[in-house]
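Progress report, Aim 2. The chain analyzed during this reporting quarter is listed below.
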Amino acid sequence: MLEPLGKKGRENRKANAKLAKDFIESGQAQVCEANFPHECTRYDQLTWAHNAKRRKKPDLTHAALLCQNAHNRIEFLPADEMKQIVDEIIERRKEAA
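Predicted structure tokens for the chain:
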């Protein structure tokens, strides 16, 4: 049986909905934003990758849209490397807007 969502889970679900809405309204393509070598699924299995583990992150809307393969690649990197990659992707997205 699935456990009910806790406070952080509810906050994350709300943040994910806001991110998706903002992406659609901005006209940005919903495609993997990763710019590092990986087996990219481009439009499939997209997830929001945060620059820190959610339990340590106050702003859940600061995230990059990555395919599951890219997300898996950065998930187990040292925290500072994961943060740098996600922050660079977000900055590049802002510059392109």
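The chain has three helices and two strands. Residues 7-96 form one domain. These observations will guide the mutagenesis work planned for the next reporting period.
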